[in-house]
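#structure-requests
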Amino acid sequence: MIGFLKGRLALKQPPMLMVDVNGVGYELEAPMSTFYGLPAAGEPVALYTHLVVRDDAHILFGFGTDSERRLFRGLLKVSGVGPKIALGILSGASVEDFLRIVEAQDVAMLTRIPGIGRKTAERVIIEMRDSVQKLAMPAPKEGRGAIGPAPASPQSEAFAALIALGYKPPEITRLLKSADEPGLSTTEIIRRALKSAARP
């Protein structure tokens, strides 16, 4: 099992990134909560990882904090929740937000995340209720790098990232209007779009 990677951030293209570790490029998928804290491409980066083994692929997931990885692993234990839905939850809510959602039993908030219906949201809240206290405990020396400068074509990269998260093109177009400001980075555009999607 690969527990973490430490190297140089070679590429970030939500929801995929690549870390160059001594000349070997590791491709990872990561939630937007992790992308918000990534440094610029070419800068040093350290990520916690989780490996999912399937019949047709081995997929490595990366996380900026151990709390995010623990939440991801906890979600995978919920019946009906796979890696894609778990990434969607982490992209739509921080660990702290998720803990509040579970404690408040806010099913409606979870159903706003693509791929999560009411039954799945109810299962997540019921099955995660007992483990939220463990998730709330931060790992020692947990931290992030600074957010890097905006990449080229931030609107188109944000569009592609939202497609990968399960949103439909017409909905993405509507959400991106809420983040239509010059000079915004890809991650900031996605952050604003996801906040807009979470509003009732």
